[in-house]
Design a protein that fits this description.
- By secondary structure, this protein is an alpha+beta fold.
- It has one domain (2-132): Tetrahydropterin Synthase, Chain A (2-Layer Sandwich), CATH 3.30.479.
- The protein is built from three helices and five strands; from the N terminus they run E-H-E-H-E-H-E-E.
- It has helices at 23-30, 63-78, 97-111; strands at 2-14, 39-51, 81-82, 116-125, 128-132.
- The chain has a five-stranded mixed beta sheet with strand order 3-1-2-4-5.
- Helix 2 (63-78) packs across helix 3 (97-111).
- It is elongated.
- The termini are far apart.
- Bound molecules: nickel (II) ion (NI).
């Protein structure tokens, strides 16, 4: 098996809060990330596709094509957006890196048709990142 990866970046703002918590509890749990008007991150997403090279092209998946899929399905929807307000597929979801990664997985696993989505790594900054391999995961959607 071979593993082919594409790394892309986007910049977004978000606010971490749970609408079912009191203001005090939101501050206690999310601290600075609960800032009412949000805050920003320069995210990096790394998408890895596993497969065997196509005998006619030598590609598991053409990286230009993988870049196009990530750009269309994810980057164009989240870059320079407020994740709590501007993105349909994140509506009602606490936009932690964990939850974003699970939602991105659902979208990309359906959109990638050559090879198979193997891993998503989502960096909020150089030193903080989430890694996911698509294990069944429930995330809470608030009304
Ligand atoms: Ni944050």
């Amino acid at each position: 098996m071979l593993y082919v990866s594409k790394r892309m970046t986007f910049s977004s703002s978000h606010r971490l809060f749970n609408p079912e918590f009191s203001d005090e509890k939101n501050v206690a749990v999310f601290d600075k990330c609960n800032n009412p008007n949000g805050h920003g991150h320069n995210y990096t997403i790394e998408v890895t596709v596993a497969g065997r090279p196509n005998p006619e092209t030598g590609y598991v998946i053409d990286l230009k094509k993988l870049k196009m899929i990530i750009g269309k399905e994810i980057i164009s929807k989240v870059d320079h957006k407020h994740l709590n307000h501007d993105v349909d597929f994140l509506s009602g979801i606490i936009p932690t890196a964990e939850n974003l990664t699970v939602v991105f997985w659902r979208i990309l696993s359906a959109a990638i048709t050559e090879g198979e989505l193997y891993r998503i790594k989502l960096y909020e900054n150089e030193n903080s990142f989430v890694e996911y391999h698509g294990e069944k995961t429930e995330i809470t959607v608030f009304k």
